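step: validate -> pass
step: tokenize input -> pass
step: predict -> running
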Amino acid sequence: MKVRAAVLESFGEPLVVQELDLAPPREGEVLVKLHACGVCHTDLYSASGADPGGYTPCVLGHEGAGVVEEVGSGVTLVEPGDHVITLFSPECGKCEHCRSGKTNICTAVRAQQGQGHLPDGTPRFSRDGEPIRHFMGTSTFAEATVMPEIGLAKIDRAAALDKVCTLACGATTGLAAALWKAAVEPGSTCVVFGAGLVGLGAVLGCKLQGAERIVAVDLSEARLELARRYGATETIVAGDGVVQQILDMTGGHGADYTFEATGLAGVMAQAVEAARFGWGLCTILGVAGKGETVDIVPRLLITGRTVQGGSFGGARGRTDVPKLVDMYLEGKIDLDGFVSHELTLDDVNRGFELMEAQDGIRSVVRF
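step: predict -> pass
step: emit ->
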């Protein structure tokens, strides 16, 4: 079938919207008609050439939601008509990692996904016979895409696809980090560095967990105001003295939980330093630039702080994302407020421009 898609032809250049051929799904694969897709910082990160694992040409996009159109042989998890959220972090339920219960990082299709291929080692997109690779196993900057069934979360059909698409990456990363990865305790003090979509999700997750104090840190007063709307009890304008401010606010101890949601190595170090000595837990959620490192003074760890990463916030895609959709439908999670701009596929590069200007929280492409 013919589909329009946004293709990354060269690093550092605008995406090119064009017509591609999309082959039907093979064994274990599913054809999804996209209804909406968020424009995420990870897409910009790869398009810029900063991602050491990046490649061209490929169809970008990973924060998608749509409807199953067709399934390949052997597919049992979804059927035509099902509403789904795309998962860059799949969940097979069978690999050693999935069975361990210790991680959400499934290894079933990871090797091929990292090369821009579907599990059989080939892509489904092409242009005049030239293969066009997939991105993060999803490629949702397209009218339709083909994915492995384990990369789709089946959700309640009542949910608005142009809102729950944010759960395909950003919103879930923040929410799941606070709800499950860090498992914030009631009455605790939390600090969230960054008030973009991931950070706001973390703020909301801390609120849902019953945290007593939630401090949001960001450069933007507008984003800090939004953080207050989502549950922040206090805010700090980011700067060199932020760690000392947090220590002063907490009697010199630091916060029980800190979350980093900026992707900046310097801020990651601040999040570690701001965690409480004795038991503070720092969860790193941002993706730093190629070759960047974080300097941590060993004494910070010796005196009881713990640092952990949280890809996708630790969420198990097919298990946890539908739970978050249900919470949205129950009115516990406000996803609507995260969507600040609605775009067409032809305007997808505008989404990158808005992101770089820190204009709004999330731009969503509607098909």
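step: describe -> The longest strand covers residues 29-38.
step: cleanup -> pass
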